[in-house]
Amino acid sequence: MGSSKASCTVSLFQLFIVVCLVFQCFARVHADLSATLIVNASDASGKPIPETLFGIFFEEINHAGAGGIWAELVSNRGFEAGGPNTPSNIDPWSIIGSGSLINVETDRSSCFDRNKVALRLEVLCDSKGDNICPADGVGVYNPGFWGMNIEQGKKYKVVFYVRSTESLNLTVSLTGSNGVGNLASFVITGSALDFSNWTKVETLLVAKETNHNSRLQLTTTTKGVIWLDQVSAMPLDTYKGHGFRSDLVGMLADLKPKFIRFPGGCFVEGEWLRNAFRWQATVGPWEERPGHFGDVWMYWTDDGLGYFEFLQLAEDLDALPIWVFNNGVSHNDQVDTSAVLPFVQEALDGIEFARGDPTSKWGSLRADMGHPEPFDLRYVAVGNEDCGKKNYRGNYLEFFKAIRNAYPDIKIISNCDGSSRSLDHPADMYDYHVYTNANDMFSRANAFDRTSRDGPKAFVSEYAVTGKDAGTGSLLAALAEAGFLIGLEKNSDAVEMVSYAPLFVNANDRRWNPDSIVFNSFQLYGTPSYWVQQFFSESSGATLLGSSLQATSSNSIVASAITFQSSVDKKNYIRIKVVNFGTNAVNLKISIAGLEPNSLQLSGSQTVLTSANVMDENSFSQPKKVVPNQSLLKNVGKDMNVTVPPRSFTSFDLLKESSNLKMTGHESSSRSSI
Ligand code: AHR
Question: Domains in the chain, ordered, with CATH?
Answer without folding.
Answer: 33-49+541-670 (2.60.40.1180), 87-235 (2.60.120.260)
